[in-house]
Structure formats: structure tokens, C-alpha cells
Design goal:
Helix content of chain A: 25-40%
Radius of gyration of chain B: 42 Å
Oligomer: heterodimer
Structural class of chain B: alpha+beta
Largest interface: A-B, 59 and 74 residues
Strand order of the largest sheet of chain B: 30-35-31-32-33-34
Distance between the termini of chain B: 97 Å
Largest sheet of chain A: 3 strands, antiparallel
Shape of chain A: elongated
Strand order of the largest sheet of chain A: 1-3-2
Number of helices of chain B: 33
Number of strands of chain B: 35
CATH topology of chain A: Alpha-Beta Plaits
Helix content of chain B: 40-55%
Order of helices and strands of chain A: EHHEEHE
Radius of gyration of chain A: 16 Å
């Protein structure tokens, strides 16, 4: 029988070095979900306008977005406006 | 006869053979020597050499000659003292019989000689025209005579009409043409400078007047000239069958104007894509019976070399002074009459008429042109064409007319070198200052931008083209700012701030408020997605922070709330939050998404995966959820799911990538899991070893017609190249039969063997299949399956994208049952996802193919 992992200790989770994508209105999520590259890069939907992306798929996602006429700004958290 | 000198031992044999007794008699008679016959021949010649052919005597003699004879002597001297009679006669104007008489007189006067007997005999044996030599003593005398002639003579009275030269105008047009290629798909013109619809539109937009050509497909001359320069300067290149602008063009246009002008001038001298000889409308090709003799039609390389020779002669003319066109022709005629077309007696260029072309006669008949008499009609017209087009366009010369220029504008009366031309020719060191032409821009509240300078600054023009649409203009270039143009600029790296700054500087600080606000708004719409890297979020799934007595301080340190248990840590606030949590005695687990957790996954013998609590981060959970499903009642246990693996493969995640992600989080993936993922991914990608049949059709027109026939298009499984399709399994015979019924035969390898005219497609033996091959609707074609319908829709959409045809699409939005009909401009078809611009209410839409019920190709076309 497989080993059952222990239940984790209660703690506050600090997620670091995440890649977020923000949209200016909720309906854009459905539009982006039509793109395979977006689906491949999507890690978690935080709210209707914010998602967590897998940073390793970012170049493929950017190529796909540019191909479809979207040109998102890429910012670093420490360089953000 | 007493004072006759004795026979000289060094007396050249040339004289003995060069003069007949009759000639000597004539000479003697002309010089007043009455007793020539009685004296010995040798003594007579020696005397003539000493007394009559001396330099002062010849100098006086040459000055007393008629102008045409002087001209013949000068032309002979310019050619090194030797020439054949055909070449020499071509340099003189007038009837050939009169010129021949002049040559005979010059020979009789002893100023010209026939060559020694040996050479003369050889030439006569070859059947070529005889040569003449210039007498050495006459050549000395001629040096002083020609020195008196000096430089070309100035025009006595300035011309009444002057066509000014605007060197900056050509450079500005180069910028506009180059930017017209950016962002659009313009194929290169053919070698004979024929372009298609994109070039016609470009010519219309640049307001090149509809010039003399009646051939709509031929590039207008000025546009063709600019294209040749851009190609020679390596500012445009061909990529994937279309022209693209080189990125370094911006540097050149923003640089020194003298450098840019010199580069264009140098490119014109070298280019072989532009041929002035072919621009002479009065000359037509003329077939010759014996091609072995060779043609006189100059090649592109010879035309290029001829430009250099003309420029060398043009340097003899003083800048800014007016000269008659005939003086330039005369200089070339004397110094280098063969600068374009080689005459002579080398056997290949002999003969009496130009071979390969002739004079255009009535009803396009071709009349022969004489090599000795028609220099002005061939080389003269070439010179005129040089002045009228490249020299004037490049701003090297101003053109002058005594009367109004004639209709065909193929003649010019006078010319004057400009200061820019003098700089390019090396006659002056300073380039005229172009900054005097920098007039401010005028930006109006209706989004129009007027460039008032006749020859605007190329750098500013290049910038303006990046974010504004050129609307044409004659002396005033008109641009228009719009949403698409600004967003196009944003795509090239421009921002609202930089665009506003450029416009504000160019207008002198007066930019209308609505313009600045609109540019800002358009840029924000362009960048409506933001991707932020290196973000830190704090998650409190157990409510520890809310339950703490220091909740207020902790929430302040944790930043703004994104979701019920999730907050975004402010920039630089991670250490503050950690300290606050430690102070409140709340344990923290750090999950670093840059490094990723290691050794958190273990694998069972079969398809089970166990994830330890340390690996409970979002990324690991997302990776697992992509390929496996959680086991009910066993937290942390997952089981591989073939459907999820296939779905991930369809989304473009490769099997290697999935296996690598698992390996990074474990001690190594089990072979069973690796094999399973690989097999399921390949299954999803449809990769299998099979014998496939290919259909290849390289003719685009025919290919489109075949694909427009639903019965034939349904036989295609997949398009694997522009011209190649995989035929559905077992349907090759059916496809072959269907094509044969329409007059198209296939080879065994699937390529076309032969066909009747494309128009026969509709009326073949099996015609009447589908009267509307440009429309497809799901579910109305009887036996057509859903896959067939999708293939049909894809073919029609691809065809519309390639041909830039508008389409009418019936589609429904996700979650809706109502179908809407919209007129669209399809832009990209990526797999099954279509991106299109709506032509009815604007905006850019993205659909899955399944959302589309019908597609109809419309007659209209769109531009991007």
C-alpha cells in the first residue's frame, strides 16, 4: 500500500518570485484561454483579472500574444512603475 | 629646287606608304609648290617634312581649317592618335559623305595618315574599315590649338524656364518608400521592375503622378529608381518572399544628410537594377539576322560604367553656371564617343548600323540607326535621359529650357551643376546646409500632421512614419495620427511619452491637448496586459494572521488583499513581513518559484505519484494537475490521467517538458511514467508511422480553385506546406479521379502533370458540384462530417487571410446559443484559433473554430 504523506504543519505560506499577469477587465481571461500557449503557461487564477504564470513558458506566451496583436508590458517587481 | 634638303636616313617608312604621289602633288599645289612632279619623291617629302609639316606651320594650318575638320583632329587626338573611320565619323555631325570628304582633305593635308601597308592590308583582309593615324607633328600643333579651346563655354543667356533640383526630396521619398514596406507584405518587383497591387497602392499613396507608362503593372520610374537605390544600399531585403526594411535604416536617416546623399549617389552609380538605356522610349529592340556578330545593346554593367564616364566629363563643367546640353554632348563626343557603346574594328562590333535596337517608327516599326551618323539619337538620348532623371532626381543638376518643355519631356536645353552636385562630384568640399529646410511640423486637433518643409529632415520623417499614417502630399507631406498607427509605433518600441515628446519638439511646443490625451489612451489600450515578474504573495490558509493579536500590524505588512486568504506583499516588504510574523510567533514556509522544490515527488510502480507536503506549491500542483488527477480520500496522492496528458500535449506542452518538470521535483522519473507520458503525447499529436499520400500544387491560383471545390478539399487531411497537403487515407484514387474529371491530371508522386485552363474547372464533366465554392456552412452539406466542415472553414479562412479578402462569419460567443453574423478581416489562424478584426464595430476578436458556423468569402479586400 502506498505511503500516505503527513498533514502539513499550519503555517503562513510566502510565495516568492512569482510571475503575475494582470488584465484591465475580467472578460479578457476567456479570450486568452483560447490560446494554447496561455493554457500551457497558466498556473493559478487568483482573481478574474490576475493569474499566476509559469515563468518558463513566458517566451512562448509572448510570441503567441504578439502574434495575436497583444503586446503586454513586462515589468520586474523591483522596477515597477 | 636648290634648297631641297638631302634624303634623311631616319625618314620613316610611314611617309612613303602614307602618301601617294597624287597626294603629294595636291599638298604641293596647295602650298604653292609648282614643280612637284619634276623633283625626286624623296627629296620632296623631306622638304615637306621640314618646311611644311613643322609645328608652327601646322598650327597655322589647323587654325585655318573648317570647324568640323578641327573637331575630327581633336577627336582623333582624344583617342590616342589612332581610330577607325567609323568611330571617328560618329563623333562628327553632318552627312557621312561630307565627313568622309573632310577626312580625305585632312589626309591630303598630311595631318592624318593611313597606317603602314602591313596593317592596312591586314585590316582590309578582315573586311573592316581602315584606320587613320594622327601625324605626330600635327599632334604637337594640336595640343596648343586645343588648349586655346579650354573648358566648355558658358551659355550666353540663361534659360527662360528652370526646373529646380530638390536633393532632399528624393531622400524624403526614400524614407517614405522604405516605411511603406514596414509592417506590410510587399513582394519584390520582378527584374524588369514590374510589381503588383501593393506597388500600385504605394505609388498612389506617395502621389507619384501617373507617368508616361500605359502598363499598370510597371513601377513608376521614380518609384523604381528609389527601389533600386534602397536595394543597392542594402536597406531592404527579401525575407520569406516579402520585402522588409533593414533595421539600420533608422541610423542612416538620422545621420548626416551629406552622408545619406553620398550613399544614394554612390548606390546609383553601382546599381544594375535601374537601366537608363532601357528608359529611352524612342528606341526599340530590333532583331538581327546574324547574332554571332554581337549586339550593340549595352548591358546593365556597361550602363553602370557609362555613368562613371559621364560623371568624369561632367567634372569639367563649373558648378552653378549654365551650360547648353549640346556642350556636354560635344565634350563626350570628342573625348569618349564610345562611352556607352563600343564601336571599332575588333570584328565583333564592326558594321555600319547599331545592332539589337533601332529607332521607333510609325506603328512601332523599327528603323535602323547608323553607327557613324546617329550618335545623337542613341548616346545623345542616353545623356538626356541621365540629366532628366537620375541627375535631376539626385539633385546634381538644375534643368533649363529655352521654351516650354515638350510633351514627352525627353529633351533638355541647358543644365547647371548644383552645389550639392559639386559636392558629390568632388568639385566642392562643403555640403549645402540642410537644416535651413527644417520647418516646424503643424499638428492640428483633427489628428492631421502637416510637414511644411519641401524636403523635410529624413530623421524626423522616419520617426513620424513609425507612428503616423502617411496620407500623401505634394509640397506639404500630410500624416494622420490614429489608434492603429500609434499602436504600430508602440509595437516598434515607441511609447506615448516619446511620441508626445517628438511631436512637441517638432511643433515648437504647441501640441493640442486632445492629441496628447489620445496618444496616452491608445498606448494604454495597446498595453492592456501587464506581466510582472518577481512578485511575492503571502497566503494564510489557516487564518493564523487573522487570529493573531497583532492582526492589524500583520495585515499592514502583508500588503493589499488579492483574494480572501491572499495578499500581495509590497515592493521591498518581504523582510518587514517576515520580522512581523516572527514577532507574532507565526511559522512561515517559503516557497521559491525561481528555484522550485526538489525531491517532493515519489512514484509508484505503476502510474501513482505521491507529493510530500513540502511540494504543495502552486506550480507543482499545477504541473501535477496537468497530467494527473488527485486520488479521492488520499491527500497528496495523484494518478496519471491519459486525457489530461493529451490535453496538455494539445496545448503545446511537450512530453519532454512534462517529464523534466517531474524529474526536477523527484529523484528521477520512473520509466513507466515516462513511457506513458510520451506515448499519450504522441497519440495526442497524431504521430504514427503510416504511409501517407501527398498532393502538391505549386500554382497558387489553381490550388485555391481546387480547395474551393468542397468535394476535392474534403479529401485533404492536413496542409503541411504552402503547396503540399496530406491526402486522407485511402482517398488518393478518389482525389485523382475528381481532379481528372476536371481536366487536371496527377503524377504518381501526387504533383500535377497537366491541366486545362483554370476556367474549365467550373465546366468540367463533373461540374455543378457546388455553385458557391466560396461559402461553407456547417450541417447543410448532407454527409459532411464535423471534421470535414472544420477543414472547409479552415481552408476558406486561410484563403481569405492569404488573399486579404473580407469574410462574413456566423459565430456564437462562448456560453451563448445565439449566432451573430459579422463582417471580419481575418488576420491570423493559429491552429483552431482565429484572430480577426471586426469591420462593423471595430475591435480585434479571437474565436475558436468550433464557435464558427459558417464562413463566406466576400468580394472586398482589406488592408492592414
Amino acid at each position: 500500500m502506498a505511503r500516505i504523506p503527513q498533514k502539513p504543519e499550519p503555517a503562513v505560506l510566502l510565495h516568492e518570485n512569482l510571475t503575475l499577469m494582470e488584465m484591465d477587465r475580467p472578460g479578457q481571461m476567456a479570450e486568452l484561454r483560447a490560446l494554447p500557449a496561455f493554457r500551457a503557461a497558466l498556473v493559478k487564477v487568483l482573481d478574474p483579472c490576475t493569474v499566476v504564470l509559469d515563468g518558463r513558458h513566458l517566451s512562448d506566451l509572448m510570441a503567441s500574444l504578439n502574434k495575436h496583436g497583444h503586446h503586454p508590458r513586462i515589468l520586474a517587481e523591483d522596477m515597477e512603475e | 629646287m636648290r634648297d631641297m634638303p638631302p634624303q634623311s636616313p631616319e625618314f620613316p617608312e610611314l611617309f612613303l606608304d602614307g602618301y601617294s604621289t597624287e597626294s603629294l602633288k595636291v599638298m604641293a599645289r596647295r602650298r604653292g609648290w609648282r614643280d612637284a612632279t619634276g623633283a625626286g619623291k624623296m627629296e620632296l617629302i623631306a622638304f615637306l617634312k621640314d618646311r611644311l609639316f613643322s609645328r608652327p606651320a601646322n598650327h597655322c594650318l589647323i587654325r585655318s581649317l573648317p570647324p568640323r575638320q578641327q573637331h575630327l583632329l581633336a577627336a582623333l587626338k582624344a583617342r590616342g592618335g589612332k581610330a577607325d573611320l567609323v568611330t571617328l565619323s560618329a563623333t562628327a555631325s553632318g552627312d557621312s559623305a561630307e565627313v568622309a570628304a573632310d577626312v580625305r582633305d585632312l589626309v591630303e593635308l598630311g595631318l592624318m595618315l593611313y597606317p603602314p601597308r602591313a596593317e592596312k592590308g591586314r585590316k582590309h583582309h578582315l573586311g573592316q574599315c581602315p584606320r587613320v593615324w594622327l601625324d605626330p607633328s600635327a599632334a604637337e600643333a594640336l595640343a596648343t590649338a586645343s588648349a586655346e579651346c579650354g573648358r566648355p563655354k558658358l551659355l550666353a543667356t540663361p534659360p527662360t524656364q528652370i526646373h529646380e533640383a530638390f536633393p532632399g526630396l528624393l531622400l524624403a521619398d526614400m524614407v517614405l518608400v522604405l516605411n511603406s514596406l514596414a509592417g506590410t507584405q510587399v513582394p519584390p518587383p520582378t527584374e524588369d521592375l514590374r510589381g503588383g497591387r501593393p506597388w500600385r497602392e504605394m505609388a498612389r499613396r506617395l502621389l507619384v503622378p501617373p507617368e508616361e507608362t500605359g502598363d499598370r503593372d510597371l513601377l513608376p520610374p521614380r518609384l523604381a529608381f528609389i527601389y533600386a537605390l534602397l536595394v543597392e544600399m542594402n536597406l531592404v531585403r527579401v525575407h520569406a518572399g516579402f520585402l522588409v526594411a533593414a533595421p539600420e535604416a533608422g541610423l542612416l536617416f538620422h545621420g548626416d544628410r551629406a552622408v545619406l546623399h553620398s550613399a544614394a549617389f554612390s548606390a546609383w552609380q553601382k546599381t544594375q537594377a535601374w537601366n537608363e538605356f532601357q528608359r529611352i522610349s524612342e528606341l526599340l529592340p530590333r532583331p538581327i539576322p546574324d547574332e554571332a556578330l554581337g549586339l550593340h545593346t549595352p548591358s546593365a554593367g556597361k550602363v553602370s560604367r557609362a555613368r562613371g564616364k559621364v560623371l568624369a566629363v561632367l567634372r569639367r563643367f563649373a558648378p552653378t553656371h549654365w551650360y547648353a546640353f549640346s556642350s556636354l554632348a560635344r565634350e563626350l563626343k570628342v573625348h569618349d564617343p564610345d562611352f556607352l557603346i563600343q564601336r571599332g574594328d575588333d570584328g565583333r562590333h564592326g558594321g555600319t548600323t547599331y545592332r539589337g535596337f533601332g529607332q521607333r517608327g510609325r506603328n512601332n516599326t523599327v528603323l535602323p540607326l547608323n553607327l557613324t551618323e546617329d550618335w545623337d539619337r542613341v548616346e545623345g538620348r542616353f545623356l538626356a535621359r541621365l540629366l532628366l532623371e537620375p541627375f535631376h532626381w539626385l539633385g546634381i543638376v538644375r534643368l533649363g529650357y529655352q521654351l516650354s518643355p515638350n510633351e514627352d519631356a525627353s529633351q533638355v536645353d541647358a543644365f547647371a551643376l548644383t552645389t550639392a552636385g559639386a559636392y558629390l562630384l568632388g568639385l566642392a568640399t562643403g555640403y549645402p546646409d540642410g537644416r535651413a529646410e527644417s520647418v516646424p511640423l503643424l499638428v492640428q486637433p483633427d489628428f492631421s500632421v502637416l510637414c511644411l518643409a519641401p524636403a523635410p529632415d529624413t530623421g524626423m520623417l522616419h520617426d513620424l512614419c513609425a507612428f503616423a499614417d502617411y496620407q500623401g502630399g505634394d509640397r506639404v507631406a500630410r500624416f494622420r495620427l490614429c489608434r492603429e498607427s500609434v499602436q504600430r509605433g508602440c509595437h516598434q518600441g515607441w511609447s506615448a511619452e516619446s511620441i508626445t515628446r517628438i511631436l512637441t519638439d517638432a511643433t515648437g511646443g504647441t501640441l493640442p491637448q486632445n492629441i496628447a490625451a489620445s496618444i496616452q489612451e491608445w498606448e494604454e489600450a495597446f498595453r492592456r496586459f501587464r506581466i510582472i515578474r518577481g512578485v511575492a504573495l503571502v497566503e494564510d490558509p489557516y487564518g493564523l494572521m487573522a487570529a493573531s493579536p497583532h492582526a492589524a500590524e500583520l495585515e499592514k505588512a502583508a500588503g493589499g488583499q488579492l483574494a480572501p486568504d491572499l495578499r500581495r506583499v509590497p515592493r521591498g516588504g518581504k523582510s518587514t513581513l517576515s520580522a512581523a510574523l516572527r514577532g507574532a510567533r507565526i511559522p512561515i514556509r517559503h516557497l521559491d518559484y525561481a528555484a522550485g522544490p526538489g525531491r517532493v515527488l515519489t512514484f509508484d510502480e505503476e502510474d501513482g505519484i505521491t507529493c510530500s507536503p513540502r511540494g504543495d506549491d502552486w506550480l507543482t500542483r499545477s504541473l501535477l494537475a496537468r497530467i494527473a488527477r488527485p486520488v479521492d480520500g488520499e491527500p497528496g496522492r495523484w494518478r496519471l490521467d491519459p486525457r489530461r496528458v493529451r490535453a496538455a500535449a494539445v496545448d503545446g506542452v511537450s512530453a519532454d517538458e512534462m517529464v523534466r518538470a517531474l524529474s526536477e521535483r523527484s529523484r528521477g522519473t520512473g520509466p513507466e511514467i515516462r513511457l506513458a507520458i510520451t506515448a499519450w503525447s504522441r497519440e495526442a499529436a497524431g504521430v504514427s508511422v503510416a504511409k501517407v499520400s501527398l498532393f502538391t500544387c505549386q500554382e497558387q491560383e489553381l490550388r485555391e480553385m481546387i480547395l474551393a471545390v468542397p468535394e476535392l478539399a474534403a479529401e485533404m487531411e492536413e496542409q503541411i506546406a504552402d503547396d503540399t497537403f496530406v491526402v486522407r487515407a485511402g482517398r488518393m484514387t478518389a482525389l485523382r479521379r475528381g481532379l481528372k474529371a476536371r481536366g487536371v491530371r496527377l503524377r504518381h508522386d501526387g504533383s500535377l502533370r497537366g491541366r486545362t485552363a483554370p476556367s474549365d474547372m467550373a465546366t468540367g464533366p463533373a461540374a455543378g458540384i457546388d455553385p458557391l465554392p466560396f461559402r461553407w456552412r456547417r450541417g447543410t452539406k448532407g454527409e459532411a462530417s464535423a471534421a470535414t466542415s472544420s477543414a472547409q472553414l479552415r481552408f476558406l479562412l486561410l484563403r481569405a487571410i492569404q488573399a486579404r479578402r473580407k469574410v462574413r462569419v456566423e459565430m456564437c460567443r462562448e456560453g451563448e446559443a445565439l449566432y451573430r453574423s459579422r463582417q471580419l478581416a481575418p488576420l491570423v489562424l493559429d491552429g483552431s484559433v482565429l484572430t480577426a478584426a471586426c469591420l462593423e464595430n471595430g475591435g480585434r476578436w479571437t474565436f475558436h473554430l468550433d464557435q464558427i458556423r459558417s464562413v463566406e468569402l466576400l468580394a472586398g479586400r482589406f488592408t492592414t
